[in-house]
Structures are given as structure tokens and as C-alpha cells.
Amino acid sequence: MGELIAVEGIDGAGKNTMVRGLVEQWRSHGDRVATFTFPRYGESVTADLAAEALHGSHGDLRESVYGMAVLFALDRAGAASEIFAAMAENDVVILDRYVASNAAYNAARLHQDADGEVVRWVADLEFGRLGLPVPDRHLFLGVPADVALGRAARRAEIDSDRARDHYERDHDLQHRVDAVYRGLAHAGWMSPWLEVTDVAEAAATARPSAG
């Protein structure tokens, strides 16, 4: 089975750029690499419902921490068989956001930290009841929160298709999410975490054959 690596960080941290860079670097060394991006907007009904709620639709759904968490969890559960198949066929599978994002965002929404009740609930729901595979390691993009928020704002200004949702516009929430992520990384939640800031560092230290 190939190694499963989850790339995590707040909005604007550079997850997509990191994933693209890792794919390019590792494939150049002959590694077989597959990727998944969550939420699967445009592919998953539950992901689309969550996105619509974050942009003001579906009444008070957005206000339900656990309701939104379940929607994002079901989106990932819908891809579980594809993830397992990709792991069987590749040296590494990279996930752009994964279960830790549900733990971090919902802990932040409830003003809990990395060892709070909702973090344990998310792990039980997604890894336990829904049977999602646990990552072999996490890569955390630990850029300062204000830098990431500035990037997200500029991205939205340039690209009309990337309008920021309710979570992305809430700077206080994003700072709390960043703090929870750092707590998860420090605790080694579910698997080892590596904090990285650039593609070269991540490619060299997280490559499966280097582990």
C-alpha cells in the first residue's frame, strides 16, 4: 500500500501549491503519485450543500457546528473506496485537506483546543464509524496566519470564482483554526506531523522512500 499524506493549513496557507509541487518533484524521481482535494466541490452533493450553506443558503444550517462537520465528513466518506484504491496502485497518495481540517475548524468554532471534545468526536466519526484511512503523516503549512489571510483575500480579488465563504472571511476564526492546527501538530494527532514552509523542504523530508 502506498503512503497516505495529508496536507493541512488554514485558507491561503498554500496547500494547493504545495501539493502540485510535491507531485512534480516526486514524479520526477519515478514515484507513482495520486491526489485528492477536499471538499470535493462539484463532485459531491454533501460538499456542495456545505459550500452553499457557507455562502448563505439552507437557512440556519451554517450555524450547526456538528451539522456542517457531518456534511464534510460524508464528502470524504464518499471517496473512501477511491482513496484505498489509489493507495493500492501508487507509492504515495496526497490529500489536499483531510480529517484534521474538520477537527481544527470545528474546535475553533466551539472555542475548544486540540484536545477538546469535538476533536475526539471527529476522529471517532471519520476514522471510526466511516472507516476512512488514517494518514501515515501530516504536512502542516505553518505560515503565519496573517500572511495566509492576506493571500486568501488577494486570491479572491483576482479570481471571481474564488469568492471567500463565511469561514474564510472570519479572521478571528482563522486565527483560532491556526492555533488548533498547531496544537494538533504538537500532539502528533493520529500520526506524525511535519511543519513545512516550502516545497523543496517537504519533498526532501516527506518523500516515502526517505521515511
From TrEMBL:
Q: Which InterPro entries match?
A: P-loop_NTPase, Thymidylate_kin-like_dom, Thymidylate_kin_CS
Q: Name one GO cellular component term.
A: cytosol
Biological process (GO), any one:
dTTP biosynthetic process
Name of protein: Thymidylate kinase
The lineage's top-level taxon is Bacteria
The UniProt similarity line reads:
Belongs to the thymidylate kinase family.
Supply the NCBIfam families for this chain. PRK07933.1
Q: Which Gene3D superfamilies match?
A: P-loop containing nucleotide triphosphate hydrolases
Keywords of this entry: ATP-binding, Kinase, Nucleotide biosynthesis, Nucleotide-binding, Transferase
Residue limits of the Thymidylate kinase-like domain? 7-185
**Molecular functions (GO terms):** ATP binding; dTMP kinase activity
Q: Which organism is it from?
A: Gordonia soli NBRC 108243
Q: Give the EC number(s) listed in the UniProt record.
A: 2.7.4.9
UniProt xrefs under PROSITE patterns: THYMIDYLATE_KINASE
